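User: Please work through this fold.
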Amino acid sequence: MAENRKKVAIIGGGITGLSAAYYLQKQCREQNLPIDIYLIEASSRLGGKIQTVRKDGFTIERGPDSFLERKKSMGILAQELGIADQLVHNATGQSFVLVNDQLHPIPGGSIMGIPTEWKPFVTTGLFSWSGKLRAAGDLVMSRSGIEEDQPLGTFFRRRFGSEVVENLVEPLLAGIYSGDIDKLSLHATFPQFYEVEKKHRSLMLGMKKTRPASSTPQAANRKPQGIFQTFSGGLQSIVEALEDALTDVTILKGSKIQGVHKLSDDQLKLVFTTGDNLIVDSAIFTLLHHQLAEIFEDHGILQHYDEVPLSSVATVAMAFSKSQVVQEKEGTGFLVSRKSDYAISACTWVNKKWPTSAPEDKVLLRSFVGKSGDESIVELPDHEIEQIVLQDLRKVISITGEPEFTIVTRYQKAMPQYLVGHKERLLKAKAELAAHFPMIQLAGASFEGSGLPDCIDQAIRAKDHVLDYLKPHLT
């Protein structure tokens, strides 16, 4: 009966909110659940940081450009939406680290900067001999015995020394979170390394043992396949497919939540900035934590989470004719050592990494600027950022003339930093919500992983918790 229907609101229309709405709609259909679903997004578009520009035969990502295939939730979602045939792998190619104005190949066999093959590590010019000997100490070093959380930098410097960390580990790991590895939490970002040390003692030996091996001689001789995936039309393809699929969901764009109130009958009143309100029985908030702190300020909860910093980054995509760009070293891109005198922190040769992203006679370079603790460049005007990036690129790559076009995208205070103690802060936040608003769930980049599959996984868990909460009222 109509009076028995329940309402669930999902606040935030990024990949987390879209996924939560999709999987809630799916279960409601399969089980004939009397639930009305609302997806509420403050901006005029869905997708959050996912935004693809399709221009003159180019496919340019303003935000994330891919996801790890081994994290299966994105592939499963694509299959359900009927767009799995659009999935493409990145082209495998050499990646480099820029140290002392020289591009050094990332040593073969490195897993997130951890060597698992000796010859590439010994022969690389990335490190001095003293740096290599210090890193080799990992082979005989005892376990740290530290069980509590610690900074990534502390953990890796103890195992490998400063040089290997600064020239290889830091550019790789810090780039993923746009953060400072001397502040980022080991347990919240890369707990697998803590477990490898705990089980195998040596990270080098442990990662070598746990590295997937080719099961057959045929597989060993097969051309390697990239570990990342995207869609041939860009990541926005998943956003468009999800929006099209949400036929049973009321989507409210341009609608911003200002506050929440718990009603006497355990319902929740969502108050919009317009003064309008929506009464629901449960809600999933997928916003960044600083937005949540504002919404729940009057209730005195989630305020400790507002202390978690957000870093700012910008991406600069530049299109050239092939005749304008000469790459002395063929590869898919490079990272920049933090101690190098460059504004950019990384550059992807997009047309090499994703061959479908540009016309055959064009080159697409995508650079990243903004480093933890030094983010002022992100606030500069577009033309100034473009010139700074172009000046840096010309130190590394032979580029003549100006770009055919440039797209600058800023993400100001948008990258959550999982600092030491992150898991404890999250547990406290969830406990506060459970005590004051048991009908609310949290999910998204601020909480349990910022990668696209991580956000989908969180959305599914949040959906399950909502249905468990509503279950006694649905029968």
Notes: The chain has three domains: 2-46+238-308+419-473, 127-221, 309-416. Residues 12 and 436 are 21 Å apart (CA to CA).
